[in-house]
Amino acid sequence: xxxxxxxxxxxxVFLCGAVLSAQTPEEIVKKMSAQMDRADTEGMIMDLNIKMxxxxxxxxxxxxxxxxxxxxxxxxxxKAIMWIDATTKWEYDEQAGxxxxxxKTQSEDKSKSDMKAFEDLTDGYNLVLERETVDAWYILCxxxxxxxxxxxxxxxxxxxxxxxxxxxxLRMKQSVVTVSIxxxxxxxSEKSVTFNPADFPNAKIIDKx
Length: 209
Hints:
Layout: H1 2-21, H2 25-36, H3 39-42, E1 44-52, E2 56-65, E3 68-74, E4 79-84, E5 88-93, E6 98-103, H4 106-110, E7 125-132, E8 136-143, E9 155-161, E10 167-174, E11 177-186, E12 204-207
Parallel strand pairs: 6-12
Antiparallel strand pairs: 1-2, 1-11, 2-3, 3-4, 4-5, 5-6, 7-8, 8-9, 9-10, 10-11
């Protein structure tokens, strides 16, 4: 009989600890945002996967550090690499073997908005912790009635790593386009986002600046 009471006591202690360690989805996202703030000085890595009708799947691997960005875009019939700094854009077409250099435009600045997809995530959304595992939290972000932005998706699925407090993925659907942001990491070197012509000795340079 004593064993039964010991087991009951241990279960009570465990349940008490579980309650004390429980976090709301808002608290989880707040911790995630604090980790993501490191990207401002250390840089960020992420994969952006977009599925569209007719075009199919387009995958991009992105590295951002300050004003610099490197993006590798892969689709079913093309691969291109782009480097952007404060003033210039370089684009390497692998099939053509050409590097086109142009002045950076405002649209290139807007392209970095995907990297900020996790900022202010709770604004305009109600968060529900759908499930929790040993390794991650899985949160449903449902668009609130007060959110009148037609461009915002009706819902987003967010998974956050317990080990790093970084997002594992953020998935959403906008009209007929499915978007998934995955493999987010912090820490980018200057070299990894800087165009080096020596890496492409045989490429044809087309300077349109």
